[in-house]
Fold:
Amino acid sequence: MFLETVEPRAPKPPDPSQLYAALDLGTNSCRMLIAQPKGSQFHVVDSFSKSVQLGAGLEASGCLSRASMGRTVQALRVCRKKLQKHNVQRMRLIATEACRRAQNSRDFIRMVKREAGLSLEIIKPEEEARLAVISCAPLVSTRTEQLLVVDIGGGSTELVWIDLSNVPRIANAEPVSACACCGLDLGAAGGRDPERPVFGCQRRFRAVRPDELFF
Structure:
């Protein structure tokens, strides 16, 4: 007697309208996640990570080199194929310190658009710090009163000190609902004073929906 084998049913592909993509192009690495919201978490559908060393030689020349831009464009082409494969419509594609500092960053952004078909957004240190805080929000205990978020990148470091001591405790609310935020971009080189605050302000953070991060 032979037992009939039953092949497991292939998982149903996610609805493209429910997918979000986030791409982070830093000084050393290019990373991307494609994910689908599942309750208060995200289910990762696809990902990409590669060391492109975009900022190689930037300190000496002040510009992105041809070699580093070429490596990065190749990586971004892979990202574009993944975005097309999953038909992702909602995405945020950001570039950080290397593109902020490079004299030829605008030329590089146009090159990426032309050769990889992606539109990169160069964000400010304040926005980079804000996104770091939001990403840590689910990990913060409701009993936390003081919090220090340190985002160490290849070309910059953002520090965000959060005072939650006066935040009202609301049932079923995200712990990071409002905070006093002060960030430092340590920069290290490029003529910056590591002790000089790039921004220091009162800024409110709250629980956010996924679409608020992308649009």
Observations:
- Residues 37 and 144 are 26 Å apart (CA to CA).
- The mean pLDDT is 77.
